[in-house]
Amino acid sequence: MEGVQGDSAVVPGIYEARELGGDIEEESQSDNGGDEDREAAYKNLTFHGVPNSAVQDGPDEGEEDVERCRSPSGKRKSFIQDQQFDIWRKEFKQAFRKVAVLSKLKAARNVKQQHRESLALQHAPIDEKDRYTQKLASDLLDSLAAGCPAALFASTHFLRDEHGQRRAPLLLAMLGVRVEPLAPGYMSREEDEGNRNEVPKTEDNNANDDDSSSIFEGVFKKGEDGPKGLYKLHLEYGIGENRLKWCVIKSYKDLSNLHSRLKLVSFQENTMNKLYIDHNRYHRFYLPHFPRIDDHETSMFVKQPTTRLDVAISSSSSSHSSTSSLNFSMDRIKVKHLQDLIDEPEDLTQPMYLRIERYLRLLNIALCLRPQANRLFQFYELSPIGNLLSYEEHHQSKQGYLIIRSTAKSQGWRVSHFKFNDFKEMIERHTTKWFLVRHSYILYVSDLYSTTPLDVFIMDSKFKIKFSGSRDGDENLTELDWNAKNSKIGTKLLITLQNGERKLQVICKSESSLKQWVSSISHAAHNTIWTKRHRFDSFAPIRRNAFCKFLVDGRDYFWALSEALRMAEDVIYIHDWWLSPELYMRRPVNGNQEFRIDRILKERAEKGVKIFIVVYRNVANTVGTDSLWTKHSMLSLHPNIHLIRSPNQWLQNTYFWAHHEKMTVIDNTIAFMGGIDLCYGRYDTPEHVLKDDHDLLKDQIFPGKDYSNARVCDFYDLDKPFESMYDRRKVPRMPWHDVHMMTVGEAARDMARHFVQRWNYLLRQKRPSRPTPLLTPPSDFTEEQLRTSPFFQMLKPKSTCEVQVIRSAGAWSLGLKETEKSIQNAYLKLIEASEHFIYIENQFFISTSHWDGVVIENNIGDAIVDRIIRANSEGKTWKAFILIPLMPGFDSPIDQPEASSVRVIMQCQYQSISRGETSIFSRLKKLNIDPLQYIQFFSLRKWAAIGPQDKLVTEQLYVHAKVLIADDRSCIIGSANINERSQLGNRDSEVAMIIRDTDLVKSKMEDKDYYAGRFAFELRKRLMREHLGCNVDLVEIVERKFGHLEELAKMNYKTLNTLSGPSKKSDMMNSAMVEVAYREVFDVEYSDSWKAKFSGNSDIKQHGILSFTTDDSGKQDDKPADGPLDSMDPNSYQKTKLPDRKASIEKEIPSRSIKNYHSFNYRAGEENVGIRDNKPVSSDPRLTNNEKHKEDVEGLGLDGWKKVTKKFKETVTEQLREWAFTALGSDLTIRKREQRRSFLPDKNDIEEYLCDESTSYGQRWDMLKRISYLQHLSFKNKSANKQNSNSKTDREPRFGNESKSDHEAHVEILEDQELDDDCIDVLLVQMAPNFEAREDASQKLFNLRFIDPYSFDDPICPSFYEDLWFSIALRNTLLFRLVFHCQPDNAVQSWRDYKEYCRMSEEFSDNQDALIDLEKRPQNASHRASSTSAVPGKGDLPLNKEAAVTVEKGTKIAEVPQEGLHRGAGKGDSPRPGEAQSKRSKATALRMRLSGSLLFGFNQRIFDKYTARRILERVHGHLVVFPTEWLAKETESKNWFYNVDRIPPIDIYD
Questions:
Q1: Burial class (CB in 10 A: 0-12, 13-18, 19+), 188
Q2: Comparing 88 with 471, which gets the higher pLDDT?
């Protein structure tokens, strides 16, 4: 390639390098558009940058290579051109200064390079189809070594063509051209000769040139090869798997016009620069000879030299000055992929299309570094922006100039026309733009050279195209016959594009151009899935074989997201209602400082990852979020981070609605979506603790503002993120329950497209003050990528889900002309199609109802009512589980004027659920249907002991999840609440995903076999387990462990099974699984049955385990997978051994039998000599040899005394519960209290169960898995009890875990008011409902200390729904009412009841404070001698007998003057009589208050702190019954709303 001459430091077409000065670097680093990209400047648009997914980055100098995630195809993409763009920008100045030196060494380097290549070709066979690509690569390396690309990119900043436009930074020498005639009957060279060496066909092309070119063939009439013919130009640019391949159709007239224009430009250039040419300051402009039909006749009179290019140029340019600095010879051209063309002379006898091909190749060399190359790029439809987008897959079609006709407003841009500059901008918008048709969108930039998109027009299901002369019925424009007689095109040459958001009108320059543009756009629209209509009227299609994983609560989501963010290589999209920059993704802070989200994003941005963030723009202080702090905190991290707040309430006239999505997309491949924002207050664990009283920030689980309680106070002072908002020792946090999900693959691309569409809309509306790029939607994955990618192949076994992205979007949020409410459509369809149950968790439940002029329009309530009516008419079982918060998450008590939002939201909920004629309950009762038989509402609540004195507090567990599960087959996870704001589509913007897993697992439904989808099935069980108090982390640990054991058993089933004789392989595997599970649970090396079978076999080593599962490194993989569970204490993996109660009973109860004394008279067995009469022994023949009678006596007769065999329960769950009841029902008084806390079954019972022939191997495996869970749970509970108790042995048996010393500290104060465990059991039995037929069922239920985590398969069978789920919810509700008198509660019907409950709740709190104060006094008195330095006023100093003050009855020590109280302290340590009397009187008053509460029944009883704690220890999980009748009388009497509640529009809340 001829770029720079060997004997000169001059770049053709520009000044000498030494005259350019040192300002080149600044110019090269400026925006590609520069000053001339005026529209991008006033729109504040900037260049997006080269996608990192298309660049193969190497390690920086001095730094280690950081391992990054792979591209979606599983391997790094090699994009040579884009890689060089990055290198050329960074090293421009050095490369440009070295042009002269490197160019002198070019010839020698080329010779050596050619020699090395020839040797390599001799020894290594090369496929012919690879030679062309290798030559292209070699030419590119040579040009890089000569510094030509650096010079080229430098020159683009000051090279101008005849129109004053910049020269596009493209390498013409890297462009391959092949020409074919578009004639009937013509056979292509591939079809005629096979693959040619020049342009081989490869499988890694990102666009099929035949497919992209065939769309134009119907535009023209096919002619013969000649001046009137049409030619298909096959073009290829670059090398590597992302090289561009496309084709254009041109007529001979088009080619002739191109040559004529270039001749005119050449004449003008050579004439105007004659002086510079003579002084070696400018190079003459040469053109190759254009092939004509009469060249053969002319050649008869002219001699044809064959070695120089100037012989092949036109005659008008052949004469030049003898002092010209350039003699452009063919001998000096070194371009390997065109060497065959250079070596051959022009053959005038060849067909015209071959001569044209030769002409175009020579023209590429002649215009290689000249600004006039822009005409050639336009002719070829090649541009830098198209080259940058070459990494996209699928359709890449026409490029060219068009004129914008439509107004900015119709295009969706917010513009003004009040200033003079606005008028100039309007004119600029209607100038010629460079358009590109892509796979599913249309893009345009300001000019050929620009890489800054000015607009991106997305194709959707509402996409339409019209043109001048088209009819309304012409919808399928891909089948238009342009050559038909009735095909007429208007003179306006106008094309109108329309999608669901806006309209775009463009003007073509000719009728032929219009046909090609219409055909290209129509072909792209026809071949993309985005223009089709989709299920639920969603914008996104159904995606199959997707990988999905649910993430429950903030801990799991934040951990997974932190891992994914650190793997990002290309782009990160974040859309959140609120984002807190100082949020820690992993807890505690100590050891996880690097996982703060702003630090993660900053590190990724420094690596070149582009990050785009959208957050909700709060209106002043109406919401506690400080989006302004978020915006500037994130933007200050790195220029690669862009953030937009939305909506702009004043500009968009949108004051009530919000962007409510919570989604993150990474590299267009991994997406997270659900209900969890990346902000304070959202992190939580499955335990949902209420306290975090660590003083040091690094030890806190909820640092700073993350310790929040929205019911107490909203967020404030967010610029001080590590200052707590409350006193952590007094105010509990409000725990947060939420659900998120992750998906990988095509659905992630759909999420990215949704984000891109929203981002671009916000740019058009807000016009940010900072330069911000428009985004292009990612192309869909190809089947080849999904099939060959190692990343997708790794996930393929688990990629079994069918998913679809759905959303709520309208005019204000996305600019849509038709509101999309596909989320509501999906909700309605799943409820309607459900056959057995629905399970809903949501922040609100506001649906179909109307009252006092208020109309709730979303139809979810209607769908539930219709489904219940159908179930009732069919006589089938159908259930609706609905979990919502007890109260909305807003501060202020409900009886205060400031609590308008709380009252309005709860009124809307009650009117939808149970109050008013249009509520669900009322509509069902009108049809004589009991609603509670079909639908129940539940909530979550927690309790804890907080502060140094363990004061008991309670708080609701806030339900923020947005989940719907139907029949364990399908589910919806997203950000949409069940209310008007989220469901209607034209209010809050939402996004969700519907998932249906095709991987079916065997389960139960109504006690019948049922096949459930794994994803929905496991999600429901995970949620229910957590709500009922199962330790979900231990369940996961057991599942991992038993999964490993199952794999181990299957690998060694021949040496682990205990079966005798030949057996089936499946039976041997099942037996081996039970064997390894037995060893794990019983903590033995082998079982007795295995020992009996293999004890004599010396070949069996290591107890039958000959093979282990290993990882890639060959090490045994026993450690759980990386995740939040890895941060747990290793001790939590330990377990408790099974009890052997039979052996322990024998040890505890000594034998009282006395050895019998045999006297002489009783020695009947000895022969009495002299007394015995010598006569035969009598017998009864009826008994002689009567075996039947012997069996009867031994208990084997008809009465079946010893024939009774132990009958095990049919299900493993029932058997495990029966063993637990047996453990609780021991008659040994000495062990009663200890067994109350024990739930492990007896070792002998399990042995007997495993040996019973009636139990299958599956039941045995399930039983051992559950026993393993109980062992881990027992160990964890015992560890927690040891930490809470002062001594392991000093324990009061009647008072739980309380030590004797602790009990004696308050026994004198409370006396008989404190209830022990036995009294509490009796009390609770009187309160508990009788759910089963047996009278002792309630007592057993209250005493049961565990929930079987594997009993959740069948959610609607009575044994689960009634005996477990509902009964625990009701029991927990009663226990919380009994202790805290907390609200809301169904027992509170009026404001009078409300105040009474508030009084009792405050009294319970005051009693705790009083008891704490009384307990402190003895401790203070015992330390008087050593407390002289205590702080005054705390009551810690000793009372002096000679004190000059008198302490009256009821006076606190802190209120007494310290000077007189402690005068002469230290002389004695005995308390004064007045102090003891004061203490006794206060204790008496406390007991009277506790006793007086008994007069009003259990609901009005106020317990002491210790009794209350023992009651609360009987709470299982967090589930409670939602109070549907709270303050119902006030609602009926219209005494609910305050006047201030009616001022704001109710639409804000519903």
A1: middle
A2: 471
